[in-house]
Amino acid sequence: MHLKPLSDLPHAVAAGMHTVFSDIDDTLTTDGQLTPPAYAALGDLRRAGLRVILITGRPAGWCDHIARMWPVDAVIGENGAFYYWHDHAARKLKCRHLLDETARAANCAGLAAVRETILREVPGCAVASDQFCRLYDLAIDFCEDVPPLPQSAVERIVALMEAAGMSAKVSSIHINGWFGQYDKLSMAHLLMRERYGIELAQLREHCMFVGDSPNDAPMFAYLPHAVGVANVAAFATRMNALPAYITPSRGGAGFAELARALISARA
């Protein structure tokens, strides 16, 4: 599949965007760090009148902070298990969960069993350092805080999760596994309907997703003007859907390039 350069994004299409969905790791961040230009781009997009919604595999504990502190409208976390937003009028953080506490507790034993199997059968991997603040999923680290594992090890981890009846997605740093059929896209539909009265299916031309890795494929496939930051090219042969456009730069610098293009078109 051919990735068109961001410069090929038609001016009219860019000017017509009203919502930007974005991944976080290796899309907003660069080498694990949120850079000042990328963070500033979030605020710039909102000041220009665009809705900004982050969609991440990161845990509930992170999303609580992000929804409170970052210049975003909402954040979808743990690959679509919930969304958080800060109600500024009520001065209160709010959250929409797919499962209640009872259902989440019932999944804990299954997650623990799969964790032990993976750690035993795949040498070199580790439970992600942010696991302690997750509510829904198991995150296995294959290159964030451990030496990078080969692709065969990543595939083995995915296979073990799926054999246990879990959904499994590969990000640029973790393999996330959970019980249920939700994903980033299904929660994006729900959030837009419940929070904004918008049917995403009817306004796909006016919503954009920015991402970088295989777990972003559902969003890339669904939104016709999706954009990948330059490092998405490293996963091109391992994804069943790619974005329409690619930025010149990787990570946060690429996100900032996209933000400037959208803001310029609106101006």
Report on the architecture of this protein:
It is a single chain. The chain has 267 residues and is α/β, with parallel strands linked by helices. The protein has two domains: 4-98 and 182-266, Rossmann fold; 101-178, Hypothetical Protein Ta0175, Chain: A, domain 2, CATH 3.90.1070. 36% of the residues lie in helices and 21% in strands. It has eight helices and 15 strands. The protein has helices spanning 11-15, 36-47, 60-69, 101-121, 151-163, 184-196, 217-222, 251-266; strands at residues 4-5, 19-22, 29-30, 33-34, 51-55, 74-77, 82-87, 92-97, 126-127, 138-141, 167-170, 174-178, 207-211, 227-228, 245-246. Strands 1-15-14-13-2-5-6-7-8 form a nine-stranded mixed β-sheet, with helices on both faces. A four-stranded antiparallel β-sheet has the order 9-10-12-11, with helices on one face. Strands 3-4 form a two-stranded antiparallel ribbon. β13 (207-211), α7 (217-222) and β14 form a beta-alpha-beta unit. α2 (36-47) packs parallel to α8 (251-266). The protein is globular and about 55 Å long. The two termini are 32 Å apart. The model has no long low-confidence stretch (mean pLDDT 96).
